Amino acid sequence: MTSTSRRAIVALALAATLGLAGCAPAAQGDGAEPTPTAGGTLTYGRLASANDLDLHTQITANNAFAIDKIFESLVSFDEHGKIIDWLAKNHEISADGLTYTFTLRDGLKYSDGTDVKAADVKFSLDRNLAKEGPLALTAPISEIATDDAAGTVVITLSEAYTPFLSELTSFSAGVVPKDFGGKTEEAFFKAPVGTGPFAIGEWDPAGDLNLVKNEHYWQDGKPLLDGLDYVFVADDNQLLQRLNAGQIDAIEQVPAANAESVEKGDATQLLKSDSWAIEQIFFNTQKPEFADVHVRRAVAQALDLPGITQATTFGTARAASSLIPPAIEYSAADAFDAEPVLSHDVDAAKQELAKSAFKDGFEATMLIPSGNSARAQIAQVVQESLAKIGIDVQIESIDLASFRERFKAFDYDFMINSGQSDAPDPNGLVTFQADPEGFSNSFWTHYTNPEVTKLMHAGRTTADGPEREQIYTDIQRILASDVPYIPVYYSPNLHGTTAKVHGLESLPNGSVRFQDAWVEAK
Amino acid sequence: MSAAPGSLTRAALGAALRVAGTVLPVMLGVVTAVFFLLRLVPGDPAVMILGDRATPQALAELRAELGLDAPLWRQYVDFVGGVLTRGDTGDSLVTGVPTAELVLSRAPVSLGIVALALVLVLAIAVPLALAAANRPGGWADQLVRIVPTITLGMPLFWIGLLLIIVFAVNLGWFPVGGVGSPGSAPLEPLRSLVLPALAVALGMAPPLIRSLRAQLLEVIEAEFVTTLRAARIPEHQIRWRHVLRGAALPTLNLLSVNLAYLIGGTLVVEKVFGINGLGTLLFQSISSRDFPVVQAVALYCAILVVLVTLAARVLSALIDPRLRGAR
Hints:
By secondary structure, chain A is α+β, with helices and mostly antiparallel strands. Helix content of chain A is 33%, strand content 23%.
């Protein structure tokens, strides 16, 4: 297929998808919305098993999206990433940004029927801090005071830290009973008890997880389902076929290539939402060629990001123009789309490269994890595009475990990987990807820019508002100009369900809420 | 059969002992090879468990907890020691579940596919080979020669996908995958195993049909068949009772040689059909560098191959008196 005809097809697919996306929220019901019915079990196909439910030590999606059904935190976020009160019925932040007061909802109970106490919240947050897990609170907490009678939790910070509320929305800030209700840690996490809409039924840590309705759930009449079965299916094609055949009710992940067929299928529907994930090309700035900012800028200008995005995501994703995705506050995506910092221009790329110490081009190896067809395709387009400016790219595709080993040891030239925020605040992503002091060394790019570091610190202590927005816009502008990484596209969440499934809420972190989910009788 | 029962038992016992003599070295070899090959592959289990956001301290703590910070020789000695003294293959690094428990819970479904595939491959190969050998060069023979050439070129996962599309998605005769749900009918799991077993059987049938056909043709030419014909024994009786038996032995040997394919094939189709058996367990564990589980699966599969080879030899000895007491 010629690139022109491919582009034409892709453009058509994009147009079709965008046309349908306009009516996406209504796609659940097609006119007359059937009346929700309680009861029944929803089977949810997933590519990996939940193998550990300890909320304070886990982060990977296979566990996180099971943990968040069992445990809940004081605050949460909605499908647009907006922070909402959850176990707390309200919260107050003092004017100096140092004191956070949360009041628990009345009559909160765990799934075993025992009452939730303010002391439980303190116990949970203390354990979160002590475990230093991958999603531990990083806010400078100096004191957590509780009043069980009033049901309040007062958290004091030693200095203002604006992303704190956002950190508290994480499943790892969830509430567990104090001292695990008298059980040992090990015993507790084998059969955990939380305030979430579901509790553990049967669980095979290397297979399926059966969740049952929490009869004591605080949202009246919810969840509608009696049970939620996480079915482990190791192959994405098999997952899709089972959905098509109606053998399972919903699947966690639809490959972009199949999004259209799921959307248009008579018996299936596509659930699409913005996410906090960004597909990116990362440079190892310890490699002399990529330490040169002109080389990185040249690469960025040589790539047609909208073209790559359309071709590799089948029109399901939006091409990226800034680090922070649109589903996170202070994203500059709209502004940069209108006025790009660097845009696709092969001549400009050649001129930029001529300014570098490598004007005659060079060889570089692009590292990608195997088994990810979108990344393999991106790599091929990058190879083709960079050849035009004299950079000879070899593609090295290795299995995920080796891939992680390699980039963490800085043993790569450049790679395709994804960045993902865990919270609706821009600080998390910026810290993980641009903090040379952090353990990830600016996401293993070793990128260091004192200006960004300074702004990053300011962003944490400045209260929300136009001033904070300016800080993050500046950070995004510097990153887009320095190009330690090239954000390629903002990955959407693509879930699939049968036509009989209703009420699923897709969250920007990739999880799905099942409180309102129900399945028509089969 | 005229052989005395004593010689029969002795023959079987002899075959068993010969194979058993190879079991221990094979086991040790498999365990050692898998252990060191796994460690040669880059990839840290702790990173796979904790993800990219884990701090170096957290990773170091987990490594220590999992015993991955011990020297390699120490880990090897511990593992082999555990297997030899207690028959213990250790716990999964990822789930903490004892590996033996994991393997045992996954084995029935995998063995179910193997057994069903064995039945299906015989059900496919024997009639086809008979039909082909019945009239060499006839249409059945041509068909048997051409069709397997095509299927032989198809990878197993591809055959599996075709079966899913035709028999599960379009016709709806069988489930697309899995092995039934807790609430499903008792026969549902068996029904789910038909397509995976068929995929394996189709992949393994072609060489078997060819071998059996060749053997049948050879036996038909044999003198004793001419003698039987001269004795006016009905032709169908000759074919079924005498010719087939004569041709069965080499086929049985070929079948036992193909066991590795059969077990390997089962592991592959499990992924295609989304069945959580040993294959999926193995695949998952390799991806997450869950060393003890990979070692345990390899060990148990090796034991299985050796045991079935043993069974095939014993069976051969029973069928062919010439093998009794040989070497």
